[in-house]
């Protein structure tokens, strides 16, 4: 079989065109990582914004294509700087952990998507193509799409401009100096704050340029944002060096095109994520363990400590709270109508999954953006077993937990990556699993999904919709909650927390950190598997659309808004994340926008989540009673403070 | 020229400076001595604004600079040569030097500035295109001084320039500081190398646990050797 040179040429040129656009987007990631160690999860939304801005300029103004390209890039750059100044700088100046910045960029992404939907609508728009960009150019007898050549030329010009900026101009040199050693640059007069703003400006400009370039190849729609995370593979291939990324992008484009053409087009969208995971696992695992807390430092005093209760009082308080919660749990189905019971049950199912995620984020200190994949694995396992093989529910839910946990175990080594890389790698894992759900038709039935999943039953008893299912869910949640709570107080749990607080020290104490983290991922996956099984039986129908990145992000926000390192927080977080949009139902799309804004607001004003809010209120109440306030920074800091009281009045 | 009055500073809950006062008159070399963790480097960082003082006053040429940002303070004519030299490794020597003049880039052509550096350190000319990580420690030392001096500062802050240097390079360092002193430069030298510090400085302060525990003309401090050793924890 001969290879058709015409087709190969078109594939190469097409792959290069897309790859050059990837390079522009990936350069934004690389710059951000170099200067701030942050992975900007809103980079894809900035690409989308650039595409929309370019669309309006092309349609509504007489500007020629080249001018539109430049103006749209600049406008997107300004948008990026605004976002940094308004939303991210306040978080950074509070010395909040990187996780909070990451969540805030997710919130920004949600807002940008919604704003664009309000302005341009949700229906995909066809990009106007300028005259002179259609047709083919024949070089040496081989046809090349003129549009692709335009894209390649403009992308290369943009990269040359960027290279000139870094190598020849003083601000560019200052940027490189600051990225290498921000303290020394600062004492040369290079303000780190300005470098960060500049980084956002330039990487957003690149994203905007990429948006204008790539939009004609697709329709312009909110879905364009996924180009961001995909392009990250280009940065990973380039080893997060500026020049490397400029080469890594085109390589990614070519790999995608050829893999789609010769291996499998169904998994085309997963190739970039596969590359990201493989490259990160090969190069980004730190060789040296780090001393010091990796993620955050919100040690909370328990309520018993706060109020200085003795053991008996603490026990009373515990049983009192449990009894009160029990009464509420039993009374709820009587108080709520059918829809509300349905909603609360759904929230409790998600909360079960969020509990597992709390273990891996709040206690193991990793960031996971692919948790919905495990929900899906559990759901499919349970659905297939009960529907096709007639396995009883009780066995199916256990199988769901085990299969999901096995997947967690297999992908556990991802947790050895530094936090932000872990986030993007697990995001990739989630996307790949989503593609598997869609394309492994023999097992998952593809997009049509699996229907006719019966309500769970134990023996002859069937948990019908409404109160019975609600009680089943509550029972499962309580079991998972108690098991995790017990786990975290065990030798394993203490080791996990120690590893989060100081990896280096824990390793020296003999804690097998890598294995402990893998195990936490495995347990988290198991919890999600259980939740997934309930989910399948709750809806009686599942399809790949129930297990996308949007659900993964919902899980992540539940844990973060609820409060890291608090299982109760994860449950409260689930009620908040799923309940607030319900309460705002009247606001239609705006509720998602409000949700995004809330996410950012939380990261700015309440980085410790709702659990922290409760704690702060209680502390404030306690202080009124006359106990001197110690810092909210946690017990460790409090000890230091107690040993070195800060002088209020330093002047004699 | 520079006066610190009752400066307090902390890293989070850890108090580092507890009321530091010192005075650096124009044209003099003043040294600040102290053991590890006594707050020497923090004092310098507080002067340039990289660490914010929680209380106290810092006056430079009769202007209050306490609370200002480094990008406002550096152009006034203060230069800090950081501990460990901290040359930007991926940047060329030329680029390192340009950054030294970054703060005053709008004020005048820097061509003369470069000439003045070549005059003082002729060997720099040969390294201009070399990357920072291709320099020996001795060469880094020269480039760090060049980077600190290219902005023609009125006050030069040196943060433990002798750390990590072989004895022969410490000798060279002493010569460089003496030449700068002869040229009329005002210097605040933070050191652990007591011998070097006392041989070049006019006046010395000894810092212990974030407080000035002793001060005097270097001649008197030299005679007080035992006391110094005691305060430095030796």
Structure description:
The complex is a heterodimer of chains A (652) and B (234). With 652 residues, chain A is an all-alpha fold. Chain A contains 27 helices and six strands. Chain A has two domains: 5-162 and 195-283, ABC transporter involved in vitamin B12 uptake, BtuC; 303-614, ABC transporter involved in vitamin B12 uptake, BtuC. In chain A, strands 1-2 form a two-stranded antiparallel ribbon. A two-stranded antiparallel ribbon of chain A has the order 3-6. A two-stranded antiparallel ribbon of chain A has the order 4-5. In chain A, a hairpin with a 2-residue loop joins strand 1 and strand 2 (142-145). In chain A, helix 9 (227-237) runs parallel beside helix 11 and helix 16 packs antiparallel against helix 22 (513-539). The longest helix of chain A is centred in the first third of the chain and has 32 residues, at 5-36. Chain B has ten helices and ten strands. In chain B, helix 3 packs parallel to helix 6. Chains A and B meet through helix 6, helix 7 and helix 27 of A and strand 1, strand 2 and helix 3 of B.
Topology (SSEs and partners):
The complex is a heterodimer of chains A (652) and B (234).
Chain A: H1 5-36, H2 43-60, H3 65-93, H4 98-120, E1 136-139, E2 142-145, H5 146-168, H6 170-180, H7 182-187, H8 192-214, H9 227-237, H10 242-262, H11 268-283, H12 303-306, H13 311-335, H14 338-363, H15 371-389, H16 393-411, H17 419-439, H18 441-444, E3 450-451, E4 457-458, E5 461-462, H19 467-488, H20 491-501, H21 503-508, H22 513-539, E6 541-542, H23 549-562, H24 567-583, H25 590-605, H26 609-624, H27 635-643
Antiparallel strand pairs in A: 1-2, 3-6, 4-5
Helix pairs in contact in A: 1-5, 1-6, 1-8, 1-9, 1-10, 2-3, 2-4, 2-8, 3-4, 3-8, 3-25, 4-25, 5-6, 5-8, 9-10, 9-11, 10-11, 11-17, 14-19, 14-22, 14-23, 14-24, 15-16, 15-17, 15-22, 16-22, 19-22, 20-22, 23-24, 23-26
Chain B: E1 2-11, E2 14-24, E3 29-34, H1 40-48, E4 55-60, E5 63-64, H2 70-73, E6 78-81, H3 93-100, H4 111-120, H5 124-127, H6 137-149, E7 155-159, H7 167-182, E8 186-191, H8 194-200, E9 203-208, E10 211-217, H9 218-223, H10 225-231
Parallel strand pairs in B: 3-8, 3-9, 6-7, 7-8
Antiparallel strand pairs in B: 1-2, 1-4, 4-5, 9-10
Helix pairs in contact in B: 3-6
């Amino acid at each position: 079989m001969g290879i058709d040179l015409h087709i190969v040429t078109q594939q190469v040129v097409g792959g290069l065109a897309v790859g050059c656009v990837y390079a522009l987007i990936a350069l934004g990631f690389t710059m951000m990582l170099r200067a701030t160690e942050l992975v900007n999860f809103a980079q894809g939304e900035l690409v989308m914004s650039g595409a929309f801005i370019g669309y309006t300029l092309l349609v509504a103004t007489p500007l020629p294509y080249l001018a539109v390209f430049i103006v749209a890039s600049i406008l997107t750059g300004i948008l990026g700087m605004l976002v940094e100044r308004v939303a991210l700088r306040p978080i950074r100046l509070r010395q909040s952990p990187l996780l909070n910045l990451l969540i805030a960029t997710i919130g920004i992404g949600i807002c940008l998507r919604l704003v664009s939907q309000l302005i341009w609508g949700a229906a995909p728009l066809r990009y106007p193509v300028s005259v002179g960009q259609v047709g083919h150019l024949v070089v040496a007898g081989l046809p090349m799409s003129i549009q692709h050549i335009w894209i390649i030329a403009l992308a290369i010009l943009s990269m040359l401009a960027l290279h000139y900026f870094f190598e020849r101009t003083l601000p560019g040199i200052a940027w490189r100096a600051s990225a290498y050693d921000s303290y020394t640059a600062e004492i040369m007069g290079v303000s780190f704050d300005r470098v960060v703003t500049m980084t956002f400006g330039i990487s957003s400009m690149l994203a905007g340029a990429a948006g204008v370039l790539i939009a004609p190849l697709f329709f312009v729609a909110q879905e364009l944002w996924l180009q961001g995370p995909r392009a990250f593979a280009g940065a990973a291939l380039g080893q997060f060096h500026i020049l490397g990324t400029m080469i890594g992008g085109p390589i990614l484009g070519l790999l995608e095109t050829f893999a789609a053409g010769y291996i499998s087009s169904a998994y085309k969208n997963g190739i970039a994520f596969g590359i990201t995971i493989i490259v990160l696992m090969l190069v980004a695992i730190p060789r040296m363990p780090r001393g010091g807390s990796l993620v955050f430092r919100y040690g909370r005093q328990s309520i018993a400590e706060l109020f200085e209760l003795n053991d008996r009082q603490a026990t009373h308080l515990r049983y009192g709270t449990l009894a009160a919660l029990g009464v509420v749990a039993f009374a709820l189905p009587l108080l709520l109508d059918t829809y509300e019971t349905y909603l609360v049950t759904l929230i409790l199912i998600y909360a079960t999954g969020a509990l597992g995620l709390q273990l891996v984020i709040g206690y193991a200190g990793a960031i996971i953006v692919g948790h919905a994949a495990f929900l899906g694995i559990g759901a499919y396992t349970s659905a297939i077993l009960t529907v096709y093989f007639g396995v009883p529910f009780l066995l199916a839910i256990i199988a769901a937990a085990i299969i999901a946990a096995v997947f967690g175990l297999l992908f556990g080594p991802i947790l050895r990556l530094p936090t932000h890389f872990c986030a993007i790698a697990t995001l990739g894992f989630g996307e790949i699993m989503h593609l598997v759900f869609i394309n492994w038709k023999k097992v998952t039935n593809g997009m049509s999904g699996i229907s006719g999943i019966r309500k769970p039953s134990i023996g002859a008893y069937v948990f019908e919709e409404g109160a019975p299912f609600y009680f089943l869910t509550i029972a499962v949640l309580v079991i998972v909650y108690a098991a995790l709570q017990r786990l975290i107080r065990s030798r394993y749990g203490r080791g996990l927390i120690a590893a989060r607080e100081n990896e280096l020290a824990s390793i020296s104490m003999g804690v097998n950190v890598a294995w402990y983290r893998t195990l936490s991922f495995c347990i988290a996956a198991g919890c999600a598997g259980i939740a997934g099984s309930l989910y399948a039986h709750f809806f009686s129908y599942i399809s790949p659309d129930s297990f996308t990145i949007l659900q993964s992000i919902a899980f992540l926000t539940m844990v973060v808004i609820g409060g890291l390192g608090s299982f109760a927080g994860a449950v409260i977080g689930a009620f908040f994340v799923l309940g607030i949009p319900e309460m705002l139902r009247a606001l239609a799309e705006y509720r998602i926008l409000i949700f995004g804004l809330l996410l950012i607001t939380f990261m700015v004003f309440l980085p410790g989540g709702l659990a922290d809010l409760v704690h702060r209120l209680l502390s404030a109440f306690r202080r009124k009673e006359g106990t001197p306030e110690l810092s909210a920074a946690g017990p460790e800091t409090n000890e230091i403070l107690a040993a070195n009281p800060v002088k209020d009045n330093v002047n004699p | 020229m520079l006066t610190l009055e009752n400066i307090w500073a902390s890293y989070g809950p850890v108090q580092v400076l507890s009321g530091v006062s010192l005075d650096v008159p124009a044209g003099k070399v003043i040294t600040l001595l102290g053991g590890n963790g006594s707050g020497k480097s923090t004092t310098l960082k507080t002067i340039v604004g990289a660490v914010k003082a929680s209380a106290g006053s810092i006056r430079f040429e009769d202007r209050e600079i306490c609370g200002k940002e480094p990008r406002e303070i550096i152009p006034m004519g203060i230069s800090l040569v950081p501990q460990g030299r901290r040359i930007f490794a991926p940047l060329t020597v030329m680029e390192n030097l340009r950054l030294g003049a970054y703060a005053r880039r709008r004020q005048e052509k820097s061509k003369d500035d470069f000439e003045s550096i070549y005059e003082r350190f002729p060997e720099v000319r040969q390294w201009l295109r070399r990357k920072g990580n291709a320099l020996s420690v001795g060469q880094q030392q020269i480039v760090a001084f060049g980077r600190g001096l290219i902005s023609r500062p009125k006050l030069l802050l040196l943060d433990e320039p002798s750390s990590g240097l072989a004895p022969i390079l410490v000798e060279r360092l002493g010569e460089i500081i003496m030449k700068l002193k002869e040229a009329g430069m005002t210097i605040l030298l933070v050191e652990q190398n007591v011998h070097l510090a006392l041989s070049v400085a006019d006046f010395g302060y000894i810092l212990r646990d974030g407080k000035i525990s002793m001060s005097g003309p270097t001649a008197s401090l030299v005679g007080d050797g035992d006391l110094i050793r005691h305060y430095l924890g030796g």
